[in-house]
């Protein structure tokens, strides 16, 4: 049997496989085929591989020595299909980024000199630089134990800070507001004229009001996922936006979006009481807005970290859909925090941004706290 060394890592509310770059074929069909076999795709259960039969647990990080001098490690993200034989190399995962940071310390890509170490990650998908702060133990290994809790992960761990300040406009390369507007009104098949905000920060995010697409923000993610008509409407939003802004074009956009993470759709509402997936009551006082994330016909059981960055950035821009529902009112240029209520519980992001001379928003810093740990290292055998 042919084997590939790998690690299984939890990063934030996601779990994925890390493989060193030199152990995989060059980018292309052969690499994709190997990755699909490692995960056991295509198969909704991924029964014959390491995949976890869910989009949050079917993620890959390809890592290696840095290819830019200001970074400690390269990290290329792949979202691996479950039912589909696809690997999306065009997006980023912030949760798995925390796992990549912990792995970099674990494997000696950086040498800690104190209680924390900064790991600069070259996020290869976007070409941007992610700055992370990882707590370490006395023997120089990443600390797993701590008192930081995140919604969607049992227990607590050591907090890893991720700063996405370099990720404004990282997908479209046209700034934080790629259309130039805080809100655009676009005709969407099956819905009609719909207000939406398109924000490019960490990933490409599209925000719509819950009331405009027929969503009760108190509904559980299982109820939302069972509403196929709702999923059809939100996929129509993703398709229409992709064409309008020039992100995707041609006759196969709808099919391509079945495997692409971007654009992520977010259904936004003001704070309200609701029950998280674990049955714990999330009170309106504990968050600043409600967000439900959907892509590739699946609602997230938690909240993407990159999408949390986009949501927090949008919350600080007057006129956006997120800003309408956001409880806070940040002063111009001052740091502000956003507590996001999601199906797994709550999370918070701290943002600093300012306006350029033309009035367009510029992202300076966007920090989210995650926990992570290396679960195992070993060999995955190929058929």
From TrEMBL:
This is 2-methylaconitate cis-trans isomerase. Keywords: Isomerase. Belongs to the PrpF family. One of its GO terms (molecular function) is isomerase activity. It comes from Streptomyces melanosporofaciens. The keyword Isomerase applies. It comes from the Bacteria.
